[in-house]
Amino acid sequence: MSSVAERIQQRMQDLRAQLDDDVEDVVDSTKEFTDWRTYVRRYPWACVGVAAAIGYLVVPSRVELESPDADALLELAKTNQLVVEANPSPQKRAGLASTAIRTFLHAAGRSALTQLGQTLGELAVRDTSAADERE
After folding, report:
1. Longest distance between any two alpha carbons in the chain, whole Å
2. Model confidence pLDDT, tens digit, residues 40-66
3. Can you spell out the DSSP letters for the chain?
4. Domain segments of the chain as ranges
5. What is the pTM of this model?
6. Quick one: pLDDT at residue 49?
7. Are 128 and 23 in contact (CB under 8 A)?
8. For residues 49 and 56, what is the distance between their CA atoms, to the nearest angstrom?
């Protein structure tokens, strides 16, 4: 009977060791999956295309000004929908410095989130291995 118990204990130890390896594989593949550099290395042209498409969608379209004719102005004035600004203020565009600062802050935020994800993944692996040792 003791040989059966020893085989079961040995099998459980093998399963625990295999589970640790599987968890490490999952953590490594998750790190690789969430790292944008992996995709740039593997698919550089697709990343350039995606970046260009996102840039195209993010940039607002130009405002087109129309010059209505006198009849259209008269109709708008009758329905109180005519708005006239004597001196419209020009909209300020972001300068090079503010764009660079925003880009830097965005990159720093993404790096901080990546580091946080890696730290949480390591803590999860430690907790899993500590729980296995207690059993």
Report:
1. 104
2. 888 889 989 998 998 888 887 777 777
3. -HHHHHHHHHHHHHHHHHHHHHHHHHHHHHHHHH-HHHHHHH-HHHHHHHHHHHHHHHSPPPPPP----HHHHHHHHHTT-----SSPPPPPPP-HHHHHHHHHHHHHHHHHHHHHHHHHHHHHHHHHHHHHHH-
4. 2-59+97-134
5. 0.33
6. 92
7. yes
8. 10
* Category of 21 on φ-ψ map: left (φ > 0), alpha (ψ -120 to 50) or beta: alpha
Contact 114, 35 (CB under 8 A): yes
Q: Tell me, what amino acid is at 48?
A: V
Q: How far apart are CA 74 and CA 24, in angstroms?
A: 74
The neighbour count for residue 122, using CB atoms within 10 Å, is: 12
Residue 51 is encoded by which pair of tokens? 């970046």
Q: Which two tokens stand for residue 8?
A: 């079961």
Residue 4 has pLDDT above 70, yes or no: yes
- Give residue for tokens 């093998």: 14
CB 9 within 8 A of CB 111: no
